[in-house]
Specification:
The chain has about 575 residues and is α+β, with helices and mostly antiparallel strands. It is built from twelve helices and 20 strands. The chain has a six-stranded mixed β-sheet with strand order 1-2-4-3-9-10, with helices on both faces. A hairpin with a 2-residue loop joins β13 and β14. The relative contact order is 0.12.
C-alpha cells in the first residue's frame, strides 16, 4: 500500500491543467480524481506511448500559443507522426537555434521523455525572467521521437528491443521478406535469449553471475558449453536465427556520414526513409541552428571526443591551417581542435550538473545521427543516452547491472532460464531466459522525473553559452578635410564559437557579414561597405576600420542567423 504523494513531473502537471480546462463543472471532481489517481508512485512519470506523446505535444502548443508551436513533420512507413515542437519568441528562425532530438534509436526510450520533459519544463518556467531572456535570444526545435515505429515495440504486442522502422526489407537477401522473425517460445510476451547445450558452442556462464552468458575466452584455455541465439526458431532453415524479422531501416544507420552500403538496417540508400529525410531537410533549412543535442546510443558527454594528435608543438593558428589542408585531401574522421575544446567544456558541465559517473558502453554505428550532425551538418553535436550503469573496466556489464538491480530492489528485470522443447534442437537441452528487453538502456520509470530535471538544467545552462555578438571600442577620429576614421571591434561574448571549425567550409553554415550604411551626403573612402566576418571563438574579437567623408549618422550591422544580428548608429561630427 502506498501513501499518496503528488507528482512533481511537469508533464503530469500539464496533463492536470489540460484536463481541468476541458472538464465541464459537473464532471470536474470525477475527472480530477481520475487524473490524480494516475499520479501515485506506481504510475508516476511512466514512459509514454506514441499516442500519449502526440497528445502531450499538441497540449503544450495549445497552452502556450505565444511561445510554442507543434506539428507533424512527416509520417513513417508505419503511419506514425514524427513530431516537432518549436519554442521561442519573435522571429524564431532568425536567431541562434538548438535542436534537441530524442528517439535516435528505438531501444532508448528514455530520450523521448528527456526531450518532452525539457519542453514542458521550459514552457512551465516561461514566467521566470532568466527563461524569458533565454527565449528572446535562442529558439529550441525539439523532436521527441524520430524512431516512433521502433520505440512502439516497448508498448505494443510482443516486447523486444527494436531499432528499425516498419519498412518491409529482405535482411538476409534470399528474396523473401520478413520470413524469419523472433518467436515467444516460453509464452511470457518477451523476447529474451535462447541457449542450447552444445560442446562446440562459444558461450559459458559468467563467473560473476551464472545467469549471464559470456563468450568463452579460448585464448585462456576455456571452451564453450552453450550456443546462444535470440529467442525464436530458424523459420527459413538457413542456419540463422531471427535474422529477417519485421522491418526495417534504422534511423541511426540511415544518415550520410560513413554510411554502410548494403549494411544491416541501413536502408537501400542514405536518407531513404521519410523520417530521416524530413528531419535532415528541416535541419538543413534552419541555418540558425548552431547546436544539436541527441539522446541515443552515441556519447560524447561522459567521454568527450578527441582531436587527432599533432606531432610536436604548434600554434593554434598553424594547427588550424594544418587541419584545413587535411580537409582538402579528404573527409574529416576526428573532431577538430577548437571544437574539441568546446566538447570538453560541455562534457565537464554535464558531469557537474547530472552527477553521472563513468561512461556508457561505446556504441559505434555507421551512418549515425551524431556523426552526421557534426561531420556533415557542421554543428556542435552532443550525444548521450541520458542514463547508464557505471561498469568498471574488466567487469561484465550485464552482471554489474544485475548487482545494481538487486541493490535497488528491482525485481522485474530478468527472466529465469526455463527449459523448453525446441523444434530445431529436439535432442539437445534448450532453455529460454535472460535480461528483459529495454532494462539495460532505460532506467526504472520512477527515476525518469529526476533525470528530466537534471537534463533540463544542463541544457538550459549550456544554451546560455550561445554565440552572441557585440560591438566594442567604437571610436571616431577627425582625419581632416571633413573625413572621419571609424574603428570598432566585433566581439563574440558567448562561450561557443560563432560556428564549429568543422562547419567552416560547409555551404550549410551562414557567413557572418558586417555592413556599413552611410547617410545621405556621406561616402566611404576606405574600407568595404559589406564584408565577411571570420569565425570567432568564445571571447574573440575582429577589428575593422573605415574612412568616411561627410557628417551625420552611420548605421553598422553585423551577424548571421546562427549568431544573431546586431546594429548600432555612430555619429560622425
Amino acid at each position: 500500500m502506498h501513501i499518496f504523494e503528488p507528482c512533481n513531473c511537469i508533464i503530469c502537471l500539464l496533463t492536470i491543467n489540460e484536463t481541468f480546462m476541458k472538464t465541464r463543472s459537473g464532471l470536474l471532481f470525477l475527472a480530477l480524481t481520475a487524473v490524480l489517481a494516475t499520479l501515485s508512485p506506481d504510475a508516476d512519470c511512466q514512459y509514454r506511448d506514441h499516442s500519449q506523446t502526440g497528445t502531450l505535444v499538441k497540449s503544450l502548443a495549445a497552452q502556450y500559443p505565444s511561445l510554442c508551436t507543434s506539428r507533424s513533420l512527416t509520417r513513417t512507413a508505419g503511419g506514425k507522426d514524427v513530431w516537432l515542437i518549436t519554442i521561442g519568441t519573435g522571429e524564431r528562425d532568425n536567431k541562434p537555434g538548438i535542436a534537441i532530438v530524442g528517439g535516435i534509436d528505438g531501444k532508448y526510450i528514455l530520450g523521448r521523455e528527456l526531450a518532452l520533459g525539457f519542453a514542458g519544463n521550459l514552457l512551465a518556467g516561461s514566467g521566470d525572467k532568466s527563461t524569458i531572456d533565454l527565449l528572446e535570444k535562442v529558439t529550441f526545435y525539439i523532436f521527441p521521437d524520430v524512431s516512433p515505429d521502433a520505440s512502439a515495440q516497448y508498448f505494443t504486442g510482443l516486447t523486444y528491443e527494436r531499432s528499425q522502422n516498419t519498412r518491409t526489407t529482405d535482411e538476409d537477401s534470399d528474396f523473401i521478406y520478413d520470413e524469419d522473425p523472433c518467436e515467444d517460445l516460453n509464452g511470457d510476451g518477451l523476447i529474451t535469449l535462447l541457449r542450447i547445450a552444445d560442446p562446440a558452442g562459444k558461450y559459458l556462464e559468467c563467473e560473476e553471475d551464472k545467469r549471464v552468458m559470456v563468450t568463452a575466452e579460448t585464448e585462456k584455455g576455456k571452451t564453450g558449453l552453450w550456443s546462444v541465439f535470440t529467442e525464436g526458431t530458424d523459420n527459413d532453415k538457413d542456419g540463422k536465427f531471427n535474422e529477417d524479422g519485421p522491418g526495417g531501416v534504422s534511423f541511426n544507420r540511415n544518415l550520410t556520414y560513413n554510411y554502410e552500403e548494403f549494411g544491416p538496417n541501413s536502408g537501400l540508400y542514405p536518407v531513404s526513409e521519410p523520417e530521416t529525410r524530413a528531419v535532415v531537410d528541416f535541419l538543413y533549412d534552419r541555418f540558425n541552428i548552431y547546436m544539436v543535442i541527441a539522446f541515443g546510443p552515441q556519447d560524447n558527454l561522459a567521454e568527450p571526443m578527441k582531436a587527432r594528435e599533432q606531432p610536436g608543438t604548434q600554434s593554434q593558428q598553424e594547427s588550424g591551417r594544418q587541419e584545413s589542408l587535411r580537409r582538402e585531401r579528404g573527409p574529416l574522421t576526428s573532431i577538430l581542435k577548437t571544437d574539441e575544446t568546446i566538447n570538453k567544456l560541455v562534457s565537464d558541465k554535464y558531469r557537474e550538473i547530472t552527477g553521472m559517473k563513468g561512461t556508457p558502453p561505446a556504441v559505434k554505428e555507421t551512418g549515425s545521427f551524431t556523426d552526421w550532425a557534426y561531420f556533415h551538418y557542421g554543428r556542435y553535436c552532443f550525444g548521450t543516452p541520458g542514463w547508464w550503469i557505471n561498469v568498471e573496466k574488466g567487469k561484465n556489464a550485464e552482471a554489474e547491472f544485475l548487482k545494481f538491480a538487486e541493490k535497488q530492489k528491482l525485481e522485474d528485470v530478468f527472466v529465469p532460464w526455463k527449459e523448453i522443447v525446441h523444434p530445431d534442437f529436439p535432442d539437445k537441452k534448450a532453455e529460454v531466459g535472460g535480461l528483459k528487453p529495454f532494462v539495460m538502456n532505460n532506467p526504472p520509470a520512477d527515476s525518469v522525473g529526476s533525470l528530466i530535471e537534471l537534463h533540463y538544467k544542463f541544457i538550459k545552462e549550456i544554451s546560455a553559452m550561445h554565440p552572441e555578438l557585440e560591438f566594442l571600442d567604437i571610436k571616431t577620429e577627425n582625419a581632416g578635410s571633413k573625413i572621419s576614421r571609424l574603428t570598432l571591434k566585433v566581439h563574440n561574448k558567448g562561450l561557443f564559437a560563432t560556428n564549429t571549425e568543422a562547419g567552416e567550409p560547409n555551404i550549410w553554415t551562414r557567413v557572418m557579414r558586417l555592413s556599413v550604411e552611410p547617410s545621405d551626403g556621406q561616402t566611404i573612402i576606405s574600407g568595404q561597405k559589406v564584408q565577411r566576418i571570420g569565425r570567432l571563438t568564445g571571447d574573440e574579437s575582429a577589428e575593422f576600420s573605415w574612412l568616411i567623408s561627410g557628417k551625420g549618422k552611420v548605421k553598422i550591422a553585423a551577424g548571421a542567423v546562427n549568431t544573431g544580428e546586431i546594429s548600432t548608429l555612430v555619429e560622425l561630427r
